[in-house]
Amino acid sequence: MTADHRIVVVGGGIAGLTAAHVLGADHDVLLLEGSPAVGGKLRTVEVAGVRVDVGAEAMLNRRPEGVELARELGLPVVHPTAAASRVWSRGALRPLPRSLMGVPFDLDELAASGVLSAEGLDRARREVLTPWTGDDVSVGDLVAARLGEEVVDRLVEPLLGGVYAGRAHEISTYAAMPQLAAMAARGSLLEQAAAVPASDVPVFAGVEGGLGSLPEALVAAGRFELRTGAVVRALRHVPGGLELTVGSARDPETLRADRVMLATPPAAAARLLGAVAPDSAAALATVGTASVAVTTLAFRTEDLPDLAGMSGFLVPPVEGLRIKASTFSFAKWDWVRASGDGLLVLRTSLGRHGEETSLQATDAQLVAASLADLRATVGIRSAPVETHVQRWGGALPQYSVGHQALVARVRAGLVGSGVTVCGAAYDGVGIPAVIGSARRAAALAVAAE
Ligand SMILES: Cc1cc2nc3c(=O)[nH]c(=O)nc-3n(C[C@H](O)[C@H](O)[C@H](O)COP(=O)(O)OP(=O)(O)OC[C@H]3O[C@@H](n4cnc5c(N)ncnc54)[C@H](O)[C@@H]3O)c2cc1C
Fold first, then answer.
1. Coiled coil located at which positions (predicted)?
2. Which domains does the chain possess?
3. pLDDT band at 249 (very low <50, low <70, confident <90, very high)
């Protein structure tokens, strides 16, 4: 059976959903999602009756795309409470100093936090103005040369690890932190960071009821046709357009499209592009990904120690714990706390790029590892009443040094092919960046009409 469609979007994460929503205003759009449900890494579930996000849980508020989309869809945008995040460093929970992804705004605040040793702090104070060649380098190499390795180990690593689940000495400055590259080109990082004006605008935003409401609302807006459980297995050019093979190998279905947008993770996009844009496919196939797991733990209120004023904490790899962060969802989000009814829900995250073996454990083992680390750090000694483990295999694309050039190569190979790409592999992994990527790809998809 062959059916004709104007535009087919492959992948129903926030990128594909946004693109389909935008394009669906003026075009006939079909969205094909391989799994049983849309949302990708945006997923809200109930744990012990409490609704919580088990994937992404906050989006940058200082970029407009995420909050604008949520508001357009009529969703209640909220901000985290004033509870502050900490960092587990040198055997204690310390205040997380304000920084630009680890480059401190205020050295006195950094000193008071105790995050660095006296030697590390002394080295950070003596910034070395290494010449900026303009070539891409890793964030870790750049900051270590300027401010010393300890700033990387204890500030940059946990912050970058939280966003990319990657390693500071591998992640591209241009792709992940272009502001830092611009600052390095201009001069002292410390002087420029110290001059960043204070702002009352909240850094993060969320959606009451969970970020999983965003995909639901995009589907409910009804601008496109949706098919779930529709894995796209092949893509090829045919006279006058493109043809997709969808469904099981035994009973495949063929769909025709004028344009195709691939909003899948990079490995799937690379496979699908093999026949239509081999150079783009080859470039995308080299993008690594990190696998992560999120455990959600529901405790009776009376079973938790006093965690007042804390929204969670980050853990640098150098500390040797299994978890890399814990978010006290009940303290961070009023709506989670309000729905708790005598229960407090928090989550831990585990897994970094290159450490896939650390996740080769049963769910019970990941929960046990999380509980052991929570006991060692914040003194939680009681057992949770319910737990949930969400694994995200190959979830976070790694922006290695040279990533921007790689993305340019992917896009160059697609010119004139009728295929566009968007999603977390290209213009940033955070939700606002992914939404921006989808909007740009949508404009490009119809630009040549
Ligand atoms: C645990 C975790 C926590 C995060 N926390 C945050 C956060 O707090 N804030 C933030 O801004 N970002 C966060 N991120 C990052 C952000 O959530 C993701 O980068 C973003 O959601 C990715 O969206 P996407 O649409 O590009 O990809 P995905 O969400 O991966 O969606 C891709 C979709 O394509 C489908 N697909 C794949 N192959 C095929 C195929 N062949 N045919 C059909 N469909 C296919 C998949 O099933 C999936 O639904 C987090 C990520 C993870 C994993």
1. none
2. 2-39+215-287+400-447 (3.50.50.60), 44-80+289-397 (3.90.660.20), 96-194 (1.10.3110.10)
3. confident
